[in-house]
Each structure stands twice: as structure tokens, then as C-alpha cells.
Amino acid sequence: MGRVRRTFSRAELESFRDAVVPDLLPTRPGQELRLLFVGINPGLWTAATQTHFAHPGNRFYPALLQAGVVTERIDPAAGLTEDERDRLRDRGIGITNLVHRATAKASELDTAELKEGGAALTALVERLRPRVVAVAGITAYRTAFGRPKAVMGRQPDQLGGAELWVVPNPSGLNAHETIPSLATAYGEVARAAGLLVDS
After folding, report:
1. Under the phi-then-psi rule, with left for phi > 0, alpha for psi from -120 to 50, and beta for the rest, what region is 163?
2. What start and end residues bound the annotated signal peptide (predicted)?
3. pLDDT tens digits, 150-162
4. Among the four given CATH numbers 3.10.20.340, 3.90.226.10, 3.40.470.10, 3.40.50.300, the one describing domain 19-192
5. Could you tell me which residues come within 8 angstroms of residue 88 by beta carbon, excluding any fewer than 6 positions away?
6. CA angle, corner 66, sides to 35 and 191, nearest 5?
7. Looking at the predicted structure, is the pLDDT value of residue 1 above 80?
């Protein structure tokens, strides 16, 4: 039986405001965390489906596919299946957020929340020891870590012992990016994490 794409009314989505979406992290022995993607915070659709980057307009999973980071199409709009979650974990991919409460827009977050999120992310990385951390969003990164002049790409400092990158946010609201440009950026961090090898 095929999966049915979910739809939500505005009122239904609003009911998920401030909800929390669990991190996608290794759950069993042998699952090595190589690449930890960090979103800004969950959107309401993500909260409703309990799946990171789930909004139908988000380009995260199509960009991963185009980059070769994943090999099978993932449609998160109805929520990821446990098999899809395990395929990401088995591949060495994890997902978390700087701030865990859901909002309609990232602009609803304040500076204090982002700074607290940066400190919590550092502690998580120190505990889990991924090879590479990729923060998806330059403005949120600058605020969370007090780096007002930071630019996209690999950062000069590590985070909790991991190589640190800032990559473009895949939200459909980020009009400067396309699936191909996101795929290029995500392919770079995947190579740094040892998930892709140039032939």
C-alpha cells in the first residue's frame, strides 16, 4: 500500500507551535555518526510529521539525492518511515536543530534562544563525536556562535572536536538557492565526512 502525502489546515499546523521534534541520531551499535546536519529550528510541518525538513517546499532530501549522499528518493511530507530513518542512520547521517521548539518562521526565535542552542549543540557534538557538523543557515550560525563575519563553507574553528561547516538553508523561503546549488554544498560536507569519494 502506497504512502499518502499529508495535508494540514492552517489551524492544525498552528496547534504544533512550540512542539519538539526528536533528533535523528544513532540508535544501535555499529551506527557511526559521520555527518550531523543542524537545522535552525523545526517548522510547523516538521513538527506535525515529526520529521526534519519535512515541508513539501523544502529541498533538503532532493539535494541529498542529487549529491549522491543518499541513493533512494525520500519524500518526507508524510513523515519518514522507520526504515528511511534507519537508512540515514546507517549511512552515518544525523539531524538536529539549534533550537528545538517549532515556529512558523525562524525569525520568531530570539538571540538568547539561538545562543543557548549553540551551547547545547556544542555539548551534543562533544558527546557524540561526529566527524563533520553542517549548520544549515549562515545568519542563525552567526548569532548562535557570536561570529558576525562568518561566511559559508568550512569554518576555521572546530566545534566540539568536529570539523565545522556552514551550508545553505534548504527552506523554500531561501530563494537564493536551488536544488543543484544545495546539492553542491551538501556534497562537499559529505566528502569531508567520508560519505562520498571522488572517482
Report:
1. beta
2. none
3. 999 999 999 999 9
4. 3.40.470.10
5. 24, 70, 80, 94, 95
6. 35
7. no
